[in-house]
Amino acid sequence: xxxxxxxxxxxxxxxxxxxxxxxxxxxxxxxxxxxxxxxxxxxxxxxxxxxxxxxxxxxxxxxxxxxxxxxxxxxxxxxxxxxxxxxxxxxxxxxxxxxxxxxxxxxxxxxxxxxxxxxxxxxxxxxxxxxxxxxxxxxxxxxxxxxxxxxxxxxxxxxxxxxxxxxxxxxxxxxxxxxxxxxxxxxxxxxxxxxxxxxxxxxxxxxxxxxxxxxxxxxxxxxxxxxxxxxxxxxxxxxxxxx
Amino acid sequence: xxxxxxxxxxxxxxxxxxxxxxxxxxxxxxxxxxxxxxxxxxxxxxxxxxxxxxxxxxxxxxxxxxxxxxxxxxxxxxxxxxxxxxxxxxxxxxxxxxxxxxxxxxxxxxxxxxxxxxxxxxxxxxxxxxxxxxxxxxxxxxxxxxxxxxxxxxxxxxxxxxxxxxxxxxxxxxxxxxxxxxxxxxxxxxxxxxxxxxxxxxxxxxxxxxxxxxxxx
Lengths: 243, 217
Description:
The complex is a heterodimer. Helices cover 39% and strands 25% of the residues of chain A. By secondary structure, chain A is α/β, with parallel strands linked by helices. Chain A is globular, with a radius of gyration of 18 Å. The model of chain A has no long low-confidence stretch (mean pLDDT 92). Chain B is mainly alpha-helical. In chain B, 83% of the residues lie in helices and 0% in strands. In chain B, helix 6 packs antiparallel against helix 8. Classes of the chains: A alpha/beta, B mainly alpha. At the A-B interface, helix 2 and helix 3 of A face helix 5 and helix 6 of B.
């Protein structure tokens, strides 16, 4: 469903992606792990055209991702994104945040958008916060609203860019819980994360990225329990046993 | 003092005719400068190099010319080029263009103060440039822009007096005419100053209100 073929990307002189080839099937949950600066987030940002890429090709359902082409709108409505810092619209209520895309991009009727918006807020456990403004919510609640906003587009896949990295530790569980539920329901997901427990339990596959290349990939449990490559072993040791 | 109140009562109705024109010039040029300023600012942040450079040069040219010269140009030079404007039209046009440069810089600062994550979030749900501006960026920029916008309103009210140089009989010119025919300079110009101040006070209060609201978030 999402294909990356030899994708290269540089910021100025620094090459952050050095030939990424990967594919994600429908219904699959793929976690991308790796040290900071390894290019994990850049991959996600290239998939929905927030960044351009220099070489290679990315396609979503056979449609080439080109951020300067009109087709990018169709790709973005099919592939939603959840950000590390939530990026909710602070001047709109929680419910308005969720229905913004359906109303103004997909031009759905207000009744239909509101109806689904409320259902989605209930699904992420925030039905009673519909009329609050985002700054009044905790980080965990804001991130769950952001997930509802992504779902409101009825996407075929959701990209999560370190969705729990900006959260207080005790709020991480709520967000991961919602994500696990989505995975169980068959949503296609690509998750950049440092939550190894989530990757092990929920992901079908894990990609370990370092220095702009995929160093190792495989079934989540195998890769996390018996990493083959020395760099993967080293990374996992540092993450799992920081002391 | 008694003489002042006596003169004030006599001249006030004449000066009120000037006030009417002052308000017309101020509101007219405020609207024009807002629209033009928005256009310059949008060109500036459009991401299209030609538009952004054109807007930057326009702003610099406008900023580099004194308002009074701009007014003279519109009122005295344009007829030579076949465009005749009434004094009032020239005043509104001149002040509107002159202030559009400051408005544009103010609007641009407000737009650029919006977190980049907001724009990315808008893009990620498929919004194009204009929809992102209209639904996400501008509504948030308004809060930031309003206090300096209020200050521009006050400055425009006072600078509308420059229209007197091209014969618009607004408050300052009415005062000058009365003063030169009655020689009561002190009383007339004190009254004129008080009338400008009276018109400024509501605007000053408005700015304070904007500042409080902007500070809340």
